[in-house]
From TrEMBL:
Gene encoding the protein: crtQ
Primary site of residence: membrane
InterPro entries, alphabetized: Glyco_trans_2-like, Nucleotide-diphossugar_trans
Keyword Transmembrane applies: yes
Record carries keyword Acetylation: no
Ranges that cross the membrane: 274-298, 305-323, 329-350
Organism, as annotated: Alkalibacterium indicireducens
UniProt keywords, alphabetically: Carotenoid biosynthesis, Cell membrane, Glycosyltransferase, Membrane, Transferase, Transmembrane, Transmembrane helix
The name this protein goes by in its record: 4,4'-diaponeurosporenoate glycosyltransferase
Glycosyltransferase 2-like domain boundaries: 40-144
Length: 370
């Protein structure tokens, strides 16, 4: 392949990396001077004794205090229910419901049925607020959109262990997959929402059918957003940077693999073709730049790698730019984009195998069938 063609391909790859995740809106930290309605916080939880205290502590510190906090215990085998009660949360159980099965959607519906607030906020147990005015700021943003429809936030990802860096590219893909943040902006129709944080009014939740209509779905964020759109209600999505963070898979690498396996393949199915193409070209550019750098080093030694190193450096800088949009990751990870691309491809192919071929995934000691 000629040098001219290689230069064109590498340039296209770099430009594509700027296309699919160009700008993500975030919730600005504000002090609201408006009267805020009663808020019910609903937290579906299964075996979340490690993560739950962080969320409940952060809720206690909020300037906008919820009317109630409801933790719906989804057949946990640990002390999730006891911990929730210790923080004065109202504890419900999927096992004591008339619903035939449990799961996240069932837990959300059970909590919504018992909630008293005018607004409903569904939070994953591994989320937490990083500023005392975070919830007040989110509420103010919701009022700015006349409390219409669904306000959803993808929490900013934090990590503590090296294996957790394997979530870098999947997190980038989750954000890109909603089709809202590309260089074309609103010219591409958005899809879905983010399951870890969903804010709505009770009235609109009931109008859309809520989680009751998606009890069998394993992608509640995508399906609930679809119900809202079918009802003629807007769906607005934001980054949680400086407001809501989470630590997704703190227990082990196997937890990380299982967690991404159950969602990656379904999450990618509705991604816009232009977004998919730009992602593919970006991945190809990273792999090509790495191959050229290694090949040049082997063939010509250190004296011939100046230009390939410069190109590879540009891709590393871009990789850092992208990861900073979705989480807080160590600086050194930017130097190994191809490693994280390979990890992502492994997770994606494993997801295809488990979901499409075996049609089952194991998560939180429960077998999920597809």
């Amino acid at each position: 392949m000629s040098e001219g063609i290689l230069a064109v391909l590498l340039s296209i790859g770099l430009m594509s990396g700027c296309f699919f995740l160009f700008k993500i809106p975030a919730i600005p930290l504000t002090k609201s001077d408006r009267k805020l309605p009663g808020l019910s916080v609903i937290i579906p939880a299964r075996d979340e004794e490690e993560s739950l205290p962080n969320l409940l502590k952060s809720l206690k510190k909020q300037t906008y205090r919820p009317l109630e906090i409801i933790v719906v215990d989804d057949a946990s085998t640990d002390d999730t229910a006891l911990i929730a009660a210790a923080y004065d949360a109202k504890v419900l159980s999927t096992e004591e419901s008339e619903l035939e099965s449990g799961g996240k959607s069932a837990a959300c519906w059970i909590g919504a049925e018992k909630a008293k607030g005018e607004w409903l906020l569904f939070l994953d147990a591994d989320t937490y607020f990083v500023n005392d005015r975070a919830l007040e700021s989110v509420a103010d943003q919701y009022l700015n959109q006349q409390d219409k429809g669904l306000l959803s936030i993808q929490p900013f990802h934090e990590i503590k262990k090296v294996y957790e860096t394997a979530s870098i590219v999947p997190n980038i893909m989750v954000m890109a997959g909603v089709n809202r943040y590309s260089l074309l902006g609103g010219q591409i129709e958005g899809r879905g929402a983010f399951g870890p944080f969903l804010l709505t009014t009770r009235k609109q939740y009931e109008e859309s059918g809520g989680h009751r209509t998606i009890l069998d779905s394993h992608m509640d964020d995508i399906e609930l957003a679809k119900r809202y759109k079918e009802t003629g209600l807007p769906v607005n999505v934001f980054s949680g940077k400086e407001v809501v963070h989470f630590r997704m898979f703190p227990e082990s690498f196997s937890q990380l693999v299982n967690g991404w396996t159950k969602s990656l393949i379904h999450g990618s199915e509705g991604t816009n073709p232009l977004v998919l193409l730009s992602i593919a070209l970006w991945i190809a550019g990273i792999c090509l730049s790495t191959t050229i750098l290694i090949g040049t080093l082997v063939t010509f030694g250190p004296t011939g790698i100046l230009l390939p190193s410069l190109i590879y450096f540009f891709y590393c800088v871009q990789f850092r730019w992208l990861m900073n949009k979705v989480g807080q990751f160590p600086l050194w990870t930017a130097g190994f984009p191809v490693i994280y691309i390979i990890v992502f491809l492994f997770l994606y192919l494993f997801s295809v195998f488990q979901v499409k071929i075996l049609k089952r995934v194991r998560w939180r000691n429960r077998e999920i069938k597809f």
